[in-house]
Design brief:
By secondary structure, the protein is of the alpha/beta class. It folds into two domains: about 180 residues, 3-Layer(aba) Sandwich (Rossmann fold); about 150 residues, 2-Layer Sandwich (Beta-Lactamase). The chain is about 40% helix and about 25% strand. It has a seven-stranded mixed sheet with strand order 2-3-4-1-5-6-7, with helices on both faces. It has a five-stranded antiparallel sheet with strand order 9-8-12-11-10, with helices on both faces. It binds guanosine-5'-triphosphate and magnesium ion. The site of guanosine-5'-triphosphate has 17 residues, from helix 1.
């Protein structure tokens, strides 16, 4: 797939020394088994990896004093081209809260100047599941927001942006994954993101198409190598309907001409079981159609996809948010 520039997302991870920035990156990487390319530089560690079908560039801004001075001395070099600022507040560190607010506000000023469209996300970090120390987390969060929001809000209103806050801990990896991926899965972007993710998977494996459905075979993301496969989708959904019984995970293989389809049903528990269906199509003349092989590939991919879906806006709050899906694109797909 072509790597156009819009597809590269630069995320700046900022926060005081020992706030937990590098630990957050490591958590994401190990949870997703992602390959890391690390280029340590003066103060900023740059990592890049593919996440949700996009090229993610993370700039991990070391928080020690001597590095911070560098960032502000050459702000253009450090604060340009940022898509997202993830600011990490160590919620267990009451002593340095004041310093953290000041650092945040300074970073905010520079980002407004050099990356005015950057989205800002706050991580109240180290909110550990079994924490038994003396810090009152809501109090810390309240104090931080009370201080920074009056500065932020007027500026954010001007550019019609909002700020999001998450509670995270490396001892609850899902909280980190969730905070990390949700901003990338914002309402407008979810459909495209799923499409891109499916596209990368299909192209890497030589599959002609991939499609993700929810209940009632409502499509929420797809990749089609050529539009000629469109017609197959109607046939495929008819076939799936016929075999969709409780407890099934792998559907029987389905063939049409030289095309071979594999479909897996999986559920995500959100109060009740929520069904998803993922199908791929391949040309059995050009790609090895060894069943176990293909199933293993799909399983690995769905592992990742489930982590994403679990935390996405689509099923936020236990409700299927099909209103989040870009209907125009879905309709296009069905018009054959
Ligand atoms: N209790 C707790 N400790 C954490 C958590 N995340 C990170 N830490 C610890 O915090 C310390 C600092 O973590 P780092 O990830 O190195 O911090 P950093 O923000 O990258 O620090 P600099 O590189 O100096 O800016 C380490 O001892 C981590 O183990 C967390 O969620 N909970
Ligand atoms: Mg670090």
């Amino acid at each position: 797939m072509s790597e156009d520039k819009d597809n590269v997302q630069k995320i700046a991870l900022l926060g005081l020394a020992a706030a937990g920035k590098t630990s957050i990156i490591k958590t994401i990487l190990s949870e997703f088994n992602l390959l890391l390319t690390l280029t340590p530089t003066k103060g900023v560690e740059r990592s890049s990896f593919k996440f949700l079908g996009r090229e993610i560039l993370i700039w991990d801004f070391g928080g020690q004093q001597r590095y911070k001075a560098q960032y502000f001395r050459y702000p253009e070099r450090f604060f340009s081209g940022i898509k997202y600022i993830y600011y990490i507040v160590d919620a267990q560190n009451e002593e340095e809260l004041r310093e953290s607010m000041d650092y945040f506000l300074t970073c905010f000023e520079y980002s407004l100047k050099y990356s005015p469209d950057a989205k800002i996300v706050l991580f109240f970090h180290k909110i550990d599941p079994n924490y038994d120390g003396k810090v009152d987390f809501p109090l810390i969060e309240g104090a931080f927001l009370h201080e920074v929001l009056p500065v932020l809000q007027p500026r954010l209103q001007e550019i019609n942006a909002t700020i999001t806050a998450f509670h995270t801990s490396i001892f609850d990896p899902l909280s980190v994954i969730s905070a990390f991926s949700q901003p990338l899965l914002d309402n407008s972007g979810i459909y495209n993101t799923l499409c891109q993710t499916i596209q990368v998977f299909c192209v890497d494996n030589g599959f002609d198409f991939g499609i993700l459905f929810v209940q009632d075979y409502f499509e929420i993301g797809h990749y089609l190598q050529t539009t000629s496969e469109k017609v197959s989708i109607t046939n495929l959904t008819n076939f799936l309907r016929e075999f969709d019984i409780q407890g099934i995970s792998w559907f029987p293989e389905f063939s049409q001409g030289f095309s071979n389809f594999h479909t897996k049903k999986f559920t995500i528990e959100i109060g009740h079981d929520f069904p998803f269906y993922f199908s791929i199509g391949l040309n059995s003349l050009t790609v090895s159609s060894e069943k176990d092989d293909i199933r293993a590939k799909i399983d690995t991919f769905l592992d990742l996809l489930q982590k994403i879906l679990r935390n996405s806006e689509i099923i936020r709050g236990g409700v299927l948010r099909t209103d989040q899906i870009d209907r125009e694109k879905t309709d296009n797909l069905e018009e054959t």
